[in-house]
Structures are given as C-alpha cells and as structure tokens.
Amino acid sequence: MSLADVALPVGLTDRHVLVVPRGTDVLALATAWFPDAQWSRAPVQAGVGGRMTGARFRGMAAQPAAGAAGVLRIDASAALEGPVPLGPDAARELGQQDVVAYALVPADPMVPLTGAALDLVTGWLVASARRVGGAILPADRSRVVVPDPAAAVDLTLWSAVPMSAHEAVPLVRPALHGARIGTGDVPSQGYAPEGAFSITAVFEYDGAVTVRADRSRDVPMVLSSLDWREYGPWAYHVVWQPTSPEELTLDQPSPLHVIARSRVSPGIARATSALWRAVGGTVVDSGGFLVTPDELRERASNIPR
C-alpha cells in the first residue's frame, strides 16, 4: 500500500513509525528486548491534569491540559516519541482503528540511527507490531507493514526443572497426537546427555510439531526482568515445521498454510501448558515476549487474541 495520500501528523514525517492500539503499554514491549528502556519524558494525556484557576483555586476548577507526546528511550542509540493520535481516516487507510503512533528517533539528535543499531530496533518494531496487532510505517512511506499476530505460534518454556523425554511424552501426547521420541536422542533409561531430547508429532497435512529440550545460558532478554526463581536454564521449545517452511517468512502465506497453522497452534499451546504445569517456569513467545497463563489458555482454546 502506498502512503503518499495518507494524512499523517507532521511529527511523523520521514521517520519509521510504530502504530499500536490505543492504550498499548509500549514500555513493556520495549523492556522485553531492551531491559534499560525507560521514559525520559512521560507522555501527558489530553484532559488530564491542567492548571488550577480561580482566586486561591476556589472551587478547584482545572483547565483541561493538552496532550503531550513523551520520549521513551529504548537504548543508547534510539528512542520513541509519542503517542501521537491518528485520526479515523488515517487509521482506516492503514487498516487499523483507534490507534496511536510512535516515531522512531535517535536518542541523541546529533547522532543518526544507522547500521546494526537501526536493524536491531526495527526488528523490535516489527515484533512489537505483531505482538499487539499493530503496524509499521517505514520512513520512505513505500508501504504499510502489518505483521500477522497469528504467525507467532512457537513457544518456549524456561524452567529450573529438568525432565526426561520419557516423562515428557505422556504430558504432550494428548495435545500432539502420535508424538514420539526422536531416534537416538535419549538412552533407554535416565536423561539424555546434558538433558537434551526431542519429541515430534507428524501430521499428514499440517507438517510436524517438535518439543525440543536443552539447557542454555542464552536466555531471552525479557527474563531478566523476572526474579530468577521464576525461570531456569532448561528450555522446552515447542516449534512448528510446516510442509512448506519458506511460507513462514512470507507476509501473505497461502490459505493452506494459514489453515494448517490454525490447526496446530492450539496443540502447541496445550503442550506447552502441560509442560508448564509439570515443571513450572515462564513461557516466552517467538517474538521474545512473555506469555501469561491466561494467554496460554486463550491460545489453547483457539480464542482470537
């Protein structure tokens, strides 16, 4: 979609823009990837606060305050300015409704945001838009990018408790029918070397779902915000391999891919939930964001988010 004719506020000109539903906690999105992110200037909502009037504030009448955008410092190189309200016409042109926008700007106005630093932050913009059902407007305004929230089907449980493949199979098999231990992954008794194993369920039309367990020190950044007792080094990855893996990277995959995805997604959530009930820990989605038990239940029930 070309954005040449979309009426956007002046403050968004020539900038990458994150468009999210009104009320979205962008600080929580930012700290999932950038733990030190914080508001250097908090936004002011329109109509909140204001200047008291009248003699000695008699009656305590207040003049409504105009809204003011804040500045969310993401890291040493980048910040977001916003929220900037978008009118209904602009939102409609972007395929959205009741949304606000945040402009990506350099943390230091004298230092342009380029290279690897820009790539990392724009990757976060896309992941955030997918997480909340928002959109991205590239600075060149060539098109609007609307990542599909349903595409983020893979989940990982991070736990302090190891389990063997033989313990895991009966837990996940009700959700992943026909799940079997990967050949050569585990000995007949006890734990596999270093606790690693894989269990795979193969579906005739929908590809396969694999539960892969391993121990890792490379945990997602979002876990750094939690108490260490809420997770651990044991990672239980529940991952979908579709029949045509290349479609995972397409903005508009085929209808057959979408149908298969909708069939396997609840099973992935149910398998992850079963593991979580057994060993505890914290679930993280493929975008690097925390998944609550309530969200797991919604995914398992196939309730649209």
List the helices and strands and how they pair.
Elements: E1 17-21, H1 26-33, E2 38-41, E3 52-53, E4 61-62, E5 70-73, E6 78-85, H2 88-93, E7 99-106, H3 115-132, E8 135-137, E9 155-159, H4 165-172, E10 180-181, E11 197-203, E12 207-215, E13 234-241, H5 255-279, E14 282-285, E15 290-291, H6 293-300
Antiparallel strand pairs: 1-7, 1-8, 2-5, 3-4, 5-6, 6-7, 9-13, 9-14, 10-11, 11-12, 12-13, 14-15
Which keywords apply here?
24% strand, seven-stranded antiparallel beta sheet, 2 domains, 15 strands
Residue share in helix: 10-25%
How many discrete domains? 2
Shape: globular
Q: What is the mean predicted local confidence, pLDDT?
A: 87
Share of residues in strands: 15-25%
Largest sheet: 7 strands, antiparallel
Helix count? Answer: 6
Tell me the Rg in angstroms. Answer: 23 Å
Strand arrangement, largest sheet?
Answer: 10-11-12-13-9-14-15
Structural class: alpha+beta
pLDDT < 50 stretches: 48-66, 186-193
Distance N to C terminus: 25 Å
Count of DSSP E strands? 15
Order of helix and strand elements from N to C terminus: EHEEEEEHEHEEHEEEEHEEH
Could you please describe the fold and organization of this structure?
The chain is α+β, with helices and mostly antiparallel strands and 305 residues long. It has helices spanning 26-33, 88-93, 115-132, 165-172, 255-279, 293-300; strands at residues 17-21, 38-41, 52-53, 61-62, 70-73, 78-85, 99-106, 135-137, 155-159, 180-181, 197-203, 207-215, 234-241, 282-285, 290-291. It has a seven-stranded antiparallel β-sheet. The protein has a six-stranded antiparallel β-sheet with strand order 2-5-6-7-1-8. The protein has a two-stranded antiparallel ribbon with strand order 3-4. It starts with 16 loop residues before the first strand and ends in a 5-residue tail after the last helix.
